Amino acid sequence: MSKTIGNPITVAIGALSSSARSVEKGIETIGSHALTAPHVKRIGLADLARALRLGANDFAALRTDVMFMVVAYPLIGLLIAGLAFNAALAPLLLPMAAGFAILGPVACVGLYEMSKRREAGEDVNWADAFTALSAKVLGPLLTMSAYLLGLFTAWIFAADLIHEVTMGGMMSGGLMAFLSEIVSTQAGWTMLVVGTGVGFVFALIALVTTIVAAPMLVDRPVGLPVAVSTSLRVAARNPVPVLVWGALVALLLAFGVATLFIGLIVVLPILGHATWHLYRAAVSFD
């Protein structure tokens, strides 16, 4: 049987048409077709401890596959630290390191999928993490990523403005000189206190809008509006546990950063898996 080669223009038009349909499908999934909102349950500190314990169990069971996935995070952190040794960028080291708390929900998408599969009793490996990026959830996840990236960018600009106002924006040396100036001058302490307060606001916004949103999108195609509104409802119904959870995340990430970012290889997977289990404890679709 003879084969024919399609006209290049026809092939190109067909490819563009297929791409357009994929984009259209992705845009459609950003919204929600769900008719009923999921049930938000009351959780306590015991649920936070259980989520962390189950997250640690997932990490222990999947550590080779998980560590293969997240090894890039400490490398990114070390790159940030290396750039900060440039005197002009040193004031942004701490804000950029704190940005892991803002970008974390989407950085752990693959871990949610692995926990989901392990919870269902399936065999799991690192390749399964990429199935989370299906056409059904890619649009909402990319939109959430853009939102968190915008929040992170706003935080960096705010941190730079705080440094400009409190310390004049001038640098007399590299990173070590900058850190010494922070702890030895009134202006440095003012910048630290104000920056911590403003950073807390940004982190809180990210926390209450995404605490269960990303794992929910991985779990089922509910659409971004339902996922975000459910996160807000979880935070409203469980303010103390949510704040404690945010504090635990901040402390663990601080440990990961303090170990020259190497600790993130362990901290981020445990937090990612634990976030899945926290979502399962706080939200029900019954």
UniProtKB/TrEMBL annotation:
The chain crosses the membrane at residues 66-86, 92-112, 133-155, 161-179, 191-218, 242-271. InterPro entries: DUF2189. Keywords: Membrane, Transmembrane, Transmembrane helix. The keyword Transmembrane helix applies. It comes from the Bacteria. Pfam families: DUF2189 (PF09955). This is DUF2189 domain-containing protein. The lineage of its organism: Bacteria, Pseudomonadati, Pseudomonadota, Alphaproteobacteria, Rhodobacterales.
